[in-house]
């Protein structure tokens, strides 16, 4: 169950990171409220997951999911470059997340 909570927390981290772009510096109310809610929910779920998961593993996986999700959505939503090197680096992060999941 902790891993599911951690996955959802990581997805929410991706959501709030992307949401920051839409807040336009917290000048737009609806995106700002949604972004702040995603931030809070993400951290709360991370904290709950860390009751049973090692903090180093949990935090690394949480930030990894957020980094990968944000990088992919940046490519898809904002036309950021999808170079081979960038895709390879995303793959390395995914490999690290998987390694942490299966190693501990």
From TrEMBL:
Keywords: Cell membrane, Membrane, Transmembrane, Transmembrane helix, Transport. It is a multi-pass membrane protein. Its main location: membrane. GO terms for cellular component: plasma membrane. NCBIfam families: PRK11431.1. It holds the Pfam family Multi_Drug_Res. This is Guanidinium exporter. Belongs to the drug/metabolite transporter (DMT) superfamily. Small multidrug resistance (SMR) (TC 2.A.7.1) family. Gdx/SugE subfamily. InterPro entries: EmrE-like (IPR037185), Small_drug/metabolite_transptr (IPR000390), Small_multidrug_res (IPR045324). It is found in: Cell membrane. GO terms for biological process: xenobiotic detoxification by transmembrane export across the plasma membrane. PANTHER family: GUANIDINIUM EXPORTER, SMR FAMILY PROTON-DEPENDENT DRUG EFFLUX TRANSPORTER SUGE. It comes from Methylobacterium hispanicum. GO terms for molecular function: transmembrane transporter activity. The chain crosses the membrane at residues 33-52, 59-78, 84-103.
